[in-house]
Amino acid sequence: MPAHEPDRHDAWPSLEQLLGLIAPGMLDVVVAPRGTGVPVADVVLHDPDEERDDDDAWAAPGAILLAIGVEVASPDAIDVLRDAERAGAAAVVLRRGGRGPRTALVEAAGRGRTALLTRRPEQRWTKVLGQLRTALVHSAPARCAGTDGPAGTDGLRLGDLSGLANTVADLVGGAITIEDPQSRVLAYSRMDHEPDPMRRLTILGQEVPRWRVVELRESGFFQALWGTDDVVRRPADERSAERLAIAVRHGSEVLGSIWAAADGRPLAEDAVAALRTAARAAVPHLLHHRTWGRAAAGAREEAVHALLKGSVRAAHDVGVAPGRPYAVLVAEAHDSQDSGAAFAAGQRVLDVLALRAAAYRPGCVTARSGRRLYVLVPAGDGEADPARALLATVRSVPRSAVFAGVGPVVADLSGLPASREAAELVVRVLQERAATLPAAEVVSAVAGYAEVGADAALLRLLDGVEPLWESLSGPVHAMVEHDRVHGSQYGDSVAAHLDAFGDTGRAAQRLNVHPNTLRYRLRRARDLFGVDLADPAVRLLADIGLRLARRAG
User: Fold this and answer.
1) What is the DSSP string of 350-415?
2) CB atoms < 10 A from the CB of 50, how many?
3) Which of the four pLDDT bands, split at 50, 70 and 90, describes residue 55?
4) CA-CA distance, 107 to 104, in Å (whole number)?
């Protein structure tokens, strides 16, 4: 059996180091006959179904082979292990399955030189491949080039941008922000001193303010930053302290940038050198974030949504305490103008609320769904409305408002669906109230379920009645259909009359018509369709039918 070893094997990371960098629990070591300190040179895919000539001398010395499509309990598993041995692989990874490895496979692995690992069924091959290769990039190039990362970064798990920011902050003696190429904040260091106004705006908005981006672009700062591998300096001004910035590159591709700001004291003398080293150390972390960070954030949001729908098992993925009381807050951005700018403004308000929620108290988690933000808020002892303090941060912005509903506090996670449904009903009530106002008068609003109980109960009633109503026919149906086809206003006139309790003058004023005009319309509604408002049953049906018609637009 040939013993293949990678060239300059002391320059490559060990299997143990790579396993320490990827997500915990992704891979399990079944047998490691030479221990986990063996060097790893590459990560490659191995398809046992791929046809090869007997004389085809393929080899993967020092590589981790990912055996696609092979379960550890399969009869083919031993053949795959032997292939890996012949290739000189450091390790082979098989899918675990439900039964675990066969005894014969474990014994064969113990007699060889190639480590046997298993992939858990819930982990995808693409994710395993991506994380292992990124871990390899993180470990190998620095050793080969003889350039280590900043002190303290070797122990960081891949993608720990906050940890990287804090480490670099200690080195440069200032505040660090890590941004993507679009000037969105990916991570920032802890704040030991009061931040300058620009840093505060950037962190709260989770991105550099648009006007500042324009200013940096027009001044040529971005051109200088993206055009060099070195540190670029921006002097202090009335809004911000001195800043140093450097681009993070992977080959010719710009992955983002690292910014250092004076944090109540001058930057360290060797801050420029520290940033140069930090830019190299940040490459695998930003690569990992780009590939897996967003996917992980998406998976976490899915877990929050599952928890809000009643899946208590998702609590482990979200990191919330199962036995603690919680309340659900639902905030929805409402746009008084149907435009891209208005939508973006609403989203920014939700971004700020999500950021405030994350910092509000431990265990507070959020999830987005279109124009809605869901916030799971842990309640303190005797606290009746834990979400109310959060909403003090919501302010109306031009062309946008936010409607927020707070569900009741529930004793444990099993009650979250009820709290969520109640909060969603509150948002619907606030939306319906806003629909009766001129666009210029719509502002942010917040309410708890108890405050809008009657309106919320009516919404529930209409939700239940709507399918039955659509299957019926009668005078009100005929009037609504006539209005839809001909653009008449008989339904609006009847609705105004009912809302005003038969006060013709007040109803006419609401419709901005003469009282005689309203009386004429009501007579025509009776003569044309049989909508006789003197009949209590007809009044009730008209009220229900016209409410449902308004809901349908």
Assistant:
1) HHHHHHHHHHHSTT-EEEEETTEEEEEEE--TT-S-TTHHHHTT---BTTEEEEEEEPPPBSSGGG
2) 9
3) very low
4) 5
